Amino acid sequence: MRAAGRSGRVRLWDRLAASDPGLLRLTAGLRTVTAISLTLAVLAGIGVPVTQLVAGAMAAMVATFAIREKQPAGQAGTLALGLPVALVSLSLGALLNQHVVAGDLFFVALIFSAVYGRRFGDRGTALGLIGFQIYFLSLFVRATPGALPALYGVVGVAFAASATARFVLLPQTPAGTLDRLRRAFRARLAQLIASQAKLPDAGPEEVEKVLEELRTRTARLHETALMIQGRLEDGTSDPAVARLLQRRVADAEIAAERLGLLLLTARSAERTDTLTLHLPGAPVPSGVESPVRDGAAAALRRDLRALRVLMLRPAGEASGTALAQVRNRLLGYREEENLPEASPAVQDVFRGLGEAARASLGLRLALDGPQDESADTPATTRSREELDAEDTAIEISEERTPEATEPTGLARPTTRAALQVAVGSSLAIAGGELLSSQRWYWAVLTCWIVFLNTASTGEILVKGYRRLLGTVLGVVAGIGLAGLVGHHTWTAFALVLVFIFAMFYSAPLSYTLMSFFVTAMLGLLYTLLNTYSAEVLVLRIEETALGAACGVFAAAVVLPVHTDRRTNELLVAVLDRLADVTRGAVDQLSGGTGGDLVERARELDQALADLRAATQPLTHPITPLRSRRDSVRYVVALLETCAYHGRSLAATAELLPTHPSIAADPRLRGACGRIVHNIEAIAAHVADPRAAVEIESGSSIASMLEPGTLRTPRYGRVTDRVLRHLQRLDEAVSGLARPLGVTGGPAR
Prior knowledge:
This is FUSC family protein. The chain contains 27 helices and 2 strands.
């Protein structure tokens, strides 16, 4: 019973880790709720009125969520600076509240300064948020100069409670966050393999659903890998260890994605295009009419389950002779040992299992350190030796990516956004006061919020629409909750805490859902302040719609950044990094020096993530341009395919100095020339549609190499895998030309 209970807790923890990588959302929600609870407990203990309880709860929430630094020392510094900023903002809000013109002018100046402060990094962003939100708090509770001494004490208690929650009760160090992210990576890796295990037995009516699940979990695994890469520098003290972890995470991701492609190929009449895993709604590979039915099916199901266990469990939880035997069997497939009698495509799946098991071993060694080697077979020993050789060869490259020239003046993003939000807020103040002289600030708040973390008019439009939808739904819920709660103060505060937790936990998942919880919470706060009415909540809808409209208008008129321009800039950045990765990988595979390929691949992935986020307005379900939406999705899927092959080439090239069965081949450099040329031609056309560029076509990459290449049983001088990646990359790059309007040229 005890073992079963522990197993259940482990499974529950794995699900939680997979759904919330690094437990970042859970920690944010719990920390904010804890800070508010501590504030309410202290203030209630000294008997302050309800208005000050509400002010304390709001101040504690602001002091907690505004801090964004990763290192505790930086968080403490920002929190210490935030307190005087909050007190000054509170004072000015109370003093200027009765002076309409002066108060409005100062509010606009404060908004401009808060947005402009983003150029100074996380600290500037946090102090700007604190200044704006505390001024808003003063308006919300209708602070007066006579109430300031008591409110100073309330804000001081709130900041102290926030510090206690952050540094004492729920501390979160970069190393701890990275450790939880690594566990999340394992959990999502296991989930992906569980989905892949469904493929061999999925019938024609089930395979579409399994394939969609495969796409979702492949994307989630990649998301977690990016999160890990973004925290390696802060979470590890040794740069060599950080680079090793980055390498092993990339290896595991590539091996898992390749295994999915091999499984799809084993079910189809031809090799599966990588685009199948990246394009939503892509057709099932041709020839898929029945599941795998050869004699290897049972062994395949068994080994996929075994691989999932190897990927999921840390060394301390996955030790023992039985698992060592499973690991040895899977690694033996890399050496062509005990391959079952099956079709070549199915045998490739077993080889892919061996490569995934090697990636699992490398990940385990990097995360958990040395392990018991007493049960190793020769195949496992060789895999360990290869991994040890790679670890020894890792050196921190002195190569540095040139820093991009930062725009100046009005072209600077922070300056442009500050001007836009200042204009939008001025319009929101004027219109909001026409709707209500008491609660006009809701329009300003919405205008402010739609500009946060947005960079184009389209993004602001979509964010405004989502906030309005969430607000409407929240008003309906708020009306019902206010009637149920009545005058039960602590019941209302308890529900407020629940909604705040839900708000922070759902924020990265759905902005509409977050807006719903915010509005429902505000309905309860109005009830506590005895200012609740259905008319007040309806007014909130009107003010929200006005603020969103003012934000969109300002973004479209004042120094606008149209979605097309934004996406084109990011698309060029992705193509430039793709060309850089491809050129460096092939140069190293040809005998040259490719530089820090792992870091270049990470930069490519980050650029693609930025592009994917920027295209959301173009792919949103409400967009009326259906054909354009499909075209954008197709282009992004092709770029994800290119990135996968670029990462795979970089990973293979990194093996070259230490792997006993891979040798450099100078002919690859010539074969790569056409690919790089086409990438650069497409980038030039996107940057300037008038540029006279053409892509080159010709024979396949494989046929460009002379026949007679020597082969070893496992790889060969020029591996089939490298050729396949180059061929698929060539095809994907050529496929980008049509939707982007680049014409073809003569064969090369």
